[in-house]
Amino acid sequence: MRPIQTIAAAAAIVAGGGVGAAAAETVNVGICVSWPGYAMLEVARQKDLIPDYDLNITIFEDPLGGHAALAAGQLDVYGCTADYTPLVVDRGTDVVNVAYLNPSYGVDHIILSPDVTPADLPGKKVAAPQAYIGHLLMGIWLDSEGITPDQVEWVNLNADEAVGPMMSGDLAAAYMYEPWISKVLEAKPGASSIVNTGDADVLQTGIFMDALYMNKNFISDDRDAALAVLKARWDGLGYWSANVEETNKLLAEFLQWPEEDIGYVIGTNGKDFEGGIYMLDFDESARLCGVIDGDGPFGMANGSMADSIALTNDWWIKLGLMTNKVDATAGIDCSLMGDLAASGYRQALTAN
User: Fold this and answer.
1) pTM
2) What is the mean pLDDT of residues 231-247?
3) CA-CA distances (angstroms) from residue 4 to 33, 61, 243, 272?
4) Which of 112, 161, 179, 218 has the fewest CB atoms nearer than 10 Å to its CB?
């Protein structure tokens, strides 16, 4: 694990009549990379939207390290990309995907170095973080160009780590997201974006999606806490939607990002940013789970989580990351979303 920032909530103190103090229960939350879409629980923490629990939030900048911590029970909750779900099933870890958070709405790109064409890539270095959305996007795009995974030299780098090698010319192509895309394109004349996740056909598949994972033991041993955290995540999203300027500043301070860059990912209208990400409200996510009626956005069908995870499994096999076809439903637990829906919880957000 490589945590770079930990925000530990101070214990809530309940005092009265000279009786001692009682500390709120701590829930350990991981964020796989510094990313606004994963940070709505920090909004809930700062705005006291989950008063009975302390959220101890760690930013990993290491998706696989965070997944390992979650599987080991060092984390209770983890925000990361949904494409890891088939691997959870294949490896038999005590982890489930409990909700879809947002599809990539064009924020994820493959960047080509200057004077490089797709035909030049065989034998060259390409960068993408293994078992992460970038690996999937790079692999699917290479496949569309008739290039098999073994024809390129893979380098396991996240977007921020790939900036330097792209600048030096060590990489022919790299997976990137903002703010790194703009930095490279501005500083490296001739570099270009060759593909992104904003295509309508890509959106409909649901495979380029962020998700909320939980440790199974956390759910079974402390279901009330699991429900409280899940509700707090949507409450944090609702707070952002109603108070965008204030919340974007909060997120910039938490993630150590320029405030302007926050807007280039989640936008300033309280719902989405084309070229960034689309924030699913509770109702939209619940429909993808199949726990309330209706279809999701972008042509995604009711209850389609399992189908998108099965499709991801197929691509991981094709890319050589997996060998087994798994039961996609084994990596999903929509019962928490179902319980919230059954309690009457609803949320339908529109752009301001």
Assistant:
1) 0.85
2) 98
3) 10, 7, 27, 27
4) 161
